[in-house]
Design brief:
Elements (H helix, E strand, L loop, with lengths): L8 H7 L23 E5 L8 E6 L3 E5 L1 H7 L14 E2 L8 E6 L2 E6 L4 E2 L3 H9 L5 E4 H9 L4 E3 L4 E2 L6 E5 L1 H4 L4 H6 L11 E2 L4
Parallel strand pairs: 4-7
Antiparallel strand pairs: 1-11, 2-11, 2-12, 3-8, 3-9, 5-6, 5-10
């Protein structure tokens, strides 16, 4: 939310001054109808629903470390090389520790186990930025750091295969009846992915 939603609220209100914005940030799945939520941005595999939804972006993953860490410890060239590095992961048992690679069209799964494990993605990122090691995380979390060369994204001469859920905008029935949804959902600066189809009835 603090990377891709709240920085754009001032521009949104300039375009729609009649709208009152109340932002709730939560890890739980909220019920838009029962809780009176107008719009939810979700990273999820959506269940069948009568609610309107548009896919905003895929949830790609990046394997990253700082330039200083790689200079001191070398850059891994193959998934097996990761075992020789300091990995920063979620606690044992978390599915985000399943790192998927596609090697010669064959999927390879590495169950990453870190000397440092943390139960929060932003805390993992701050540890990586401090030179603590390597991690695999969602690209939307590290894109600016890669662009500004604070982090290096490593390809390991293979393709990543991710089963992570994409990002969706899901709209409650009250909002759907009041505004031009196509305009709002397509007004993304910067765009994340080419606009996906809208699921549900906009009429």
């Amino acid at each position: 939310s603090h990377r891709h939603i709240t920085p754009h609220l001032p521009n949104f209100l300039n375009r729609y001054p009649e709208v009152e914005v109340r932002v709730q940030v939560s890890d739980r799945v909220v019920d838009l109808v029962d809780e009176g939520i107008d719009l939810a941005i979700r990273i999820a595999h959506l269940k069948d629903s009568s609610l309107i939804a548009r896919r905003l972006a895929a949830n790609h993953r990046s394997l990253v470390a700082t330039p200083d860490y790689l200079e001191k410890n070398g850059t891994p060239e193959h998934p097996e090389d990761l075992m020789q590095h300091q990995l920063i992961t979620y606690p044992p048992g978390n599915p985000l520790n399943d790192w998927h690679f596609l090697i010669d069209e064959t999927e390879r799964l590495i169950k990453a186990k870190g000397a440092i494990s943390i139960n929060n993605g932003d805390a993992i990122l701050s540890t990586v930025l401090a030179g603590g090691g390597l991690t695999m995380t969602s690209s939307y979390m590290v894109g600016e750091h890669i662009k500004n060369q604070r982090l290096v994204s490593m390809k390991l001469n293979v393709n990543f295969e991710s089963n992570l859920a994409p990002t969706w905008a899901q709209v409650g029935p009250k909002l759907a009846s009041k505004i031009d949804l196509k305009s709002v959902l397509e007004d993304r600066t910067p765009p994340l992915d080419p606009p996906g189809p809208i699921y549900g009835n906009l009429d």
